[in-house]
Design goal:
The protein is of the alpha/beta class. Helix content is 50%, strand content 15%. This is SAM-dependent methyltransferase.
Length: 356
């Protein structure tokens, strides 16, 4: 990856970027309100004709002053243009309004992270998710996930599922091509992977390992879909090294899961996977590594997402560089026998087997 190997900006571009950083919270909130208030939608629907400030005020039913300052902010941000006193949507404004990836990211940052990021400095100092206290007193966000406000849960799962949903159809054939039937799904969340397996293969049997609160959500969903006879559940605190994983399965699956843990914790979890799986079994790891991205914007997004883990989730994990992650895999006694990059939005699939 050469995205970050040299300083590509001129001095003028650099100072412009510095101002963007200084005003970044204002840019973010103004953009969010321009989207949510209907202002951008009204401008979009006017197509090439554009709308005057007064016409926009009438359509969105907001105070003239408020619409004016938001639109002027939107000009500087690059969401709208103005000519002959008529506002028109830019390409950036179009993506803010219509792109599902951008929606998922923006809602996640606002609903889940924004308030808590105020405590990022303390999280860095203490190695704990100090920002999580804006929602409750849990050691990590995972214990409190089922108790978060409804809109926060919606944005959290919307963010998580957007990335995984595009990857699952691609990776299912890779998981089942070796005659896999019995799978452990560690960190099964709402049961989406278990359901995908059950739909993909009539022989699939999945055991979900997760915290009790998450298992309750998954159970309800799986029962509703009629797969209760092929999906079982085991409550486990993954960080408790005394809690071993069940044996007798063909494969262990972890999707967007190990990034929720520190280097040492990843090694601990993988060592228990090593004990649970036999010599012919595989461990499949689906992750987003920032150094393996096709586009700089994707790498940037993952690097910034790491600070969600720092301030909100657990205080000690991140979106990893693949070299750091694969060192943990090797330390736990596995080798990567196959690596498939560029899956879905940004994923890599690591197929791991015990080292001989």
């Amino acid at each position: 990856m050469t995205f970050f190997s040299k300083d590509k900006k001129s001095a003028l571009q650099a100072i412009e970027t510095a101002q963007w950083i200084a005003f970044a919270p204002v840019v973010f909130q103004a953009t969010r309100i321009l989207r949510n208030s209907g202002i951008l939608l009204a401008v979009q629907e006017s197509k090439s004709a554009g709308l005057t400030l007064e016409e926009i005020v009438e359509k969105v039913n907001l105070p003239h002053y408020g619409v004016r300052v938001l639109l002027e902010s939107g000009l500087g941000i690059g969401l709208v243009t103005v000519n002959d006193q008529k506002y028109r949507l830019t390409k950036t404004g179009h993506f803010i309004l219509n792109d599902e990836l951008t929606k998922a990211n923006l809602d996640f940052i606002h609903d889940v992270c924004y308030q808590g990021l105020f405590h990022l400095d303390k999280s860095i100092e203490n190695g704990k998710p100090e920002g999580l206290k804006v929602f409750g007193e849990w050691p990590t966000i995972y214990e409190g996930l089922s108790q978060l406000p409804q809109h926060v849960q919606k944005s959290w799962f919307g963010f998580d599922h957007y990335y995984s949903d595009t990857a699952f159809p691609v990776v299912l054939p890779h998981v089942f091509k070796n005659g896999t039937k019995k799978i452990i799904d560690i960190g099964g969340n709402t049961g989406k992977w278990a359901v995908a397996c059950a739909k993909h293969s009539a022989d699939a049997q999945v055991t979900i390992l997760d915290l009790p609160g998450q298992l309750n959500v998954a159970k309800a969903k799986i029962e509703q879909l009629g797969f209760a006879d092929r999906v079982s559940f085991q409550a486990v605190n993954i960080l408790d090294e005394t809690q071993q994983f069940p044996k007798g399965h063909d494969a262990i699956w972890m999707s967007q899961f190990l990034d929720c843990f520190s280097d040492a914790e990843i090694v601990s979890i993988l060592k228990r996977c090593h004990e649970a799986i036999d010599e012919n079994g595989y461990v499949f790891i689906l992750e987003t590594f920032w150094d393996l991205q096709r586009f700089e914007a994707s790498a940037f997004s993952l690097q910034q997402t790491s600070l969600y883990f720092t301030a909100m989730a657990n205080g000690n994990s991140q979106m990893y560089h693949s070299d750091v992650f694969k060192k943990c895999v090797y330390e736990a006694g596995f080798e990567v026998v196959e690596q498939i990059d560029n899956i879905g939005v940004s994923h890599t699939l690591l197929k791991c087997k015990k080292r001989q």
